Amino acid sequence: MIAAFAAMLFAGAALYVNVVEHPARMVLETRSAAQQWAPSYRRATLMQAPLALISLLSGVLAWLSGASLWCLAAALLIGSVVPYTFLVVMPTNHRILESDRDLSSVETRELLQKWARLHGVRTALSLVASVIDVWQLGGNGVT
Questions:
Q1: Both ends of the chain: CA-CA distance in Å?
Q2: Which of 5, 13, 73, 122 has the greatest CB tally within 10 Å of its CB?
Q3: Domain coverage including residue 81
Q4: Tens digit of pLDDT for each residue in 21-70?
Q5: Element (H or E) spanning 60, and its range?
Q6: What is the pTM of this model?
Q7: Distance separating alpha carbons of residues 122 and 119, to the nearest angstrom
Q8: Which string of DSSP letters, residue by residue, matches 85-139?
Q9: Record's InterPro entries (predicted)?
Q10: How many domains does the chain divide into?
């Protein structure tokens, strides 16, 4: 249940960012969008990284305790957002946060748009993990 709860919280927050927050941010001119993105990204990291790790660890523990292979699959899916973030998303984050970046540039807008697509992958992974977790809670979780 902990794995499912953490995955669902992660997925809900990630979906909100992709469907509501980032599109609203991108209505702003590029400088304002980039200035708003930076603190939002930092605060979201403080919430989402622990949720992914909690879901991963509790899902693996559930599997080790007799839950189905599906629980392990869900745990690995949500857990995969962590290395994906470090290896794929972080380079874009660092480019957006460069101290000498022209926040009004076309390149900055393109980086923010790229970030949204990359974040969408995290959203999809967490949604699939959440669906599997909820399905397993429905009675199929323990063999």
A1: 16
A2: 122
A3: 2-140
A4: 999 999 999 999 999 999 999 999 999 999 999 999 999 999 999 999 99
A5: helix 30-64
A6: 0.91
A7: 5
A8: IIIIIHHHHHHHT-TT--TTSHHHHHHHHHHHHHHHHHHHHHHHHHHHHHHIIII
A9: Anthrone_oxy (IPR013901)
A10: 1
